[in-house]
Amino acid sequence: MSTGICRWGIMGTAGIAGKNWRAIALSGNGRVTAVASRNLVGAERFIDRCQQRTPVADRPAAVGDYQALLDRDDVDAVYIPLPTALRHPWVIRAAKAGKHVLCEKPIASSETEAQEMIAACREAGVQFMDGVMFMHSRRLEGLRDTIDDPQRVGRLRRIQTHFSFSSDTQFQTSNIRVMRQLEPYGCLGDLGWYTVRMSLWVMRGALPRQVSGRILTELCGQGSDGPVPGEFSGELFFDGGVSAAFYNSFLTQNQQLAVISGDRGYVMLDDFVLPWMGAELAWEDFQHRFDGEDDRFFMGRHATRHSVHEYSNGAPGAQEVNMIRRFGEIVLHGQVEPDWPRIAQSTQRVLDALLASAHRGGEIVPVDQSIIVV
Predict the structure, then answer these.
(1) In this structure, what are the phi and psi dihedrals at residue 204, rounded to the nearest 5 degrees?
(2) pLDDT of residue 371
């Protein structure tokens, strides 16, 4: 283990890996020491591209084999953006090699796989975390204060989330997210991980008792071994009368909305996953008032805007940099945090239940409440 710096290995050259290369460079406590691809040429090409966009003084080593990266002594932590279906064995191998693991989402092809991955990390004493960047935004602190304010939201009743983008024909025929053998959850995994996570965060990690899901549209890429959800809607039912609804789609125009409603008001933010470009992240709360007298009816709009000074991306205080920096602190201090694997496993469990419900025509499916990550 190095002192003062977390040495990163990147396993895979997906587009999101370039964003996290920059985040590591800006973190202040991290450095990429090696990049692995399926072949040496691919690793070199990725490093060249990243060096052009975010140059670093010490060029990372290119590695043409994932296991060779795990065998290196100059890697403390690995970031794994491999396709979902490939993550399970490599997370386990990384843990056995003593490497801390930051894993893209969805973390596995089933909760059984997720449990095995998390167990391997726990047994090896290394940190496991999924790559949900919005969980590391400073906005969540302020948002939590607003939600918990009895005069602004009051008793929580309903959560609604929507995350979608309108893909083109090329995406719908050739992107790995429409290849079931690589990304079996389709839009439910790629986008639903965020909408479900937001609901779980609002509920402080509590699992729903029951869920219901529906596949509204299926997509099947060329070479896929079957269709995946291209458009999905779901309902989550929590204790205490709280419910949550979400919608995800590869076919609907860009939207990333979250509305958290109570008996006194509601909170809304329309960029909860990828913040709008700029130097602040905002949210609003509303306590609209209805007044009626004889045949005259009035709805009064009462809104309060809140914000934090935080750049949307590519800056030292942006959410993806905060994620990398926090992970580096865990590695360097040697104190693993069990809440991160716990919320990741919970998210995977809810996705599995939703997909099971969808395959049963939207039937309400119970969710096992026992999540144990010590």
Answers:
(1) 55, 40
(2) 59
Whether 49 and 42 have beta carbons less than 8 Å apart is answered as: no
Residue spans of the domains in the chain: they are 6-134, 137-318+346-366
Task: Look up 105 and say whether it is catalytic.
Answer: yes
Q: Alpha carbon 110 to chain centroid distance? A: 16
Q: Give dist(CA 255, CA 292) in Å, integer.
A: 34
- Per the structure block, which two tokens stand in for 178? 């429409």
Please give the Cα distance from 37 to 12 (Å, whole number): 5
d(CA 80, CA 55): 21
CB contact at 8 A, 201 and 157: no
pLDDT at 297: 82
- Output DSSP code: residue 251: E
Return d(Cα 180, Cα 285) in angstroms, integer.
Answer: 40
pLDDT (tens digit, 9 = 90+) per residue, 195-240? 999 999 999 999 999 999 999 999 999 999 999 999 999 999 999 9
Q: What is the pLDDT of residues 42-100, one digit of tens each?
A: 999 999 999 999 999 999 999 999 999 999 999 999 999 999 999 999 999 999 999 99
Q: Which of 19, 96, 99, 105 is catalytic?
A: 105
Assigned fold of 6-134: Rossmann fold (3.40.50)
| Edge-to-edge strands, sheet with 6-11 | 61-63, 30-36, 6-11, 77-80, 100-103, 128-130
CB-neighbour burial class of residue 155 (10 A; exposed 0-12, middle 13-18, buried 19+): exposed
Q: Is the pTM of this model over 0.90?
A: yes
What does the DSSP assignment read for 260-310? EEESS-EEEES-SSSPPSSSEEEEEEE--EEEEETTEEEEE--EEEEEEE-
Identify the pLDDT of residue 1.
Answer: 47
CATH no., domain 137-318+346-366: 3.30.360.10
